[in-house]
Amino acid sequence: MAGRTRPHNPEEINRIRRAGIVTGQVRDAIAAEVRAGMTTSDLDQVAGEIIRATGGKSAFLGYGGFPGNICISVNDTVIHGIGSPRTVIAEGDIVSIDVGVEIGGALGDCATTVPVGTVSRDAIRLLEGTKNALYAGISAAHPGVPVRNVSAAVEAVGRRYDLGIVRDYVGHGCGIELHEPPEVPNYTGWGSGPLLMPGMVICIEPMFTLGGHAVKVDRRDKWTVRTRDGSLSAHFEHMILITEKEAEILTWQKTM
Predict the structure, then answer these.
(1) Mutual orientation of helices 121-139 and 147-160 as an angle, nearest 10°?
(2) What is the pLDDT of residue 6?
(3) pLDDT the model gives residue 253
(4) Does the pTM exceed 0.90?
(5) Which of 30, 39, 211, 219 is most enclosed, with most CB atoms within 10 A?
(6) Distance (Å, rounded) from C-alpha 93 to C-alpha 194?
(7) Mean pLDDT, residues 73-89 taken together
(8) Does the CA dihedral 210-213-219-221 come out positive or negative?
(9) Run of H or E including 246
(10) In terms of Cα–Cα distance, which of 141, 139, 147, 150 is closest to 192?
């Protein structure tokens, strides 16, 4: 994620704001399609149709060779899950949906995790903790503060819910490119990072588990990231714009 951390100019922000709105709408439409009995390949095909109907295109398809329209991560899969005809969504699963849309020369990026039917109490704790951590991070994203403040806010909620905090993957800048500086970790102890400035666009994305923080990448597909201990994982993400006062959520989400 090399490059200079910089604010976006007003013309870029207009395009990014539109991309964010579209991406949030796409995420919600895809989440509404998740149901027991469908395969993740089915869901990926539906996602592709929803994205194309916006006039945009998937920001993930072909990115670094990724083969899916979106990332679909079930249960112990943290991120980068690939839709497969062999993976059938079942009652009691939790399904993370990570969506990127490129439209009008800008990009949106966001994620949510949805329960399928009735899930366990621990799964509910995981979903609530991860989602609450996202909004805590957003509340801490003020102009003039270092990225570390966001990381600390996210981490504090994860600790309060007794959740594992994934360290190997982090939030990031976004807007004109899918991944821009700065990195936005979900934990502290790495430094302070750059100061947030009006015009910067970042993605805050807690990735928490019911176990430890260690993960592993699938040796066959080279993409799918799972918890090393097999514990459940959840992923929530918003793209936000730093303004003169408080953060503006560009990928607003309907109430889960």
Answers:
(1) 160
(2) 83
(3) 66
(4) yes
(5) 30
(6) 38
(7) 98
(8) positive
(9) none
(10) 147
